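Morning F.,

Quick status update on the modeling queue. The single chain you submitted on Monday has been processed. Sequence for confirmation:
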Amino acid sequence: NLKRRRREGEGDAGADADMREEAVERLRGVVRDSVGKHLYTSAIFLADKVAAATGDPADVYMLAQALFLGRHFRRALHVLNNSRLLRDLRFRFLAAKCLEELKEWHQCLMMLGDAKVDEHGNVLDQDDGSDIYFDKDAEDHEINIKSAICFLRGKAYEALDNRDLARQWYKAAVKVDPLCYEALECLVDNYMLTCEEESELLASLKFGKEDGWLSAFYSCLIRKHEKEYVVEAKFKDLERESCSISPSSGQMMKNNIDVLACKAEYYHQSGEYQKCFELTSV
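Structure tokens below.
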């Protein structure tokens, strides 16, 4: 009888644990939904309770993310600093993003850590293995965290009026991961590269086998100074490469707002004002 009662007690404890985990998982789902609906106060309130109950790094990060989105930057920074998880690149990057929002640029760079970059955007720091990244499973479906860190370094140096280092870190960001479009946009929109440097950067990028359309778009974006027939051929390449995504995407890409803006800017730079006007009046 005693053994049976013991087994029953163990079974009840296991069932209670399962129920608690189910309740916590439900709250995590509500936090994610609240963020999706921009109900940040609700997300912060619930994420705080989940993180307190579990202490799980993923839940602490979820709380810090909710605080960041709710624009409670100092509180988010406090949570991240107290987590003792700043070795995780996600935690360190989010802490640096808080410092960016607070315009504390020197502290932002300190949070991102020491690193050097050369004129061509090659990062020269030695990885000593001290960095960790808990969410390895998501890496194939996201922009490389190290690319995001390089980009944030570039923004910090640009804010500190160090245009040379900003340029080098923007180049590093897009070289680490060509999907980091913002880095290339900063380089192009701020006229940070010569025509020769633009071509060299494009040639150095390592695109995935399924990213031919992106390579073609970048060619259109940075080769607007070439002859019209060369640029038009690049836009044709983009339409053809886009068909690798789906049969209808070639036509869709032709009418895509980014592609149209790129074409319009080319026509404007070339003095083809009528073509530019017609394209932007559609």
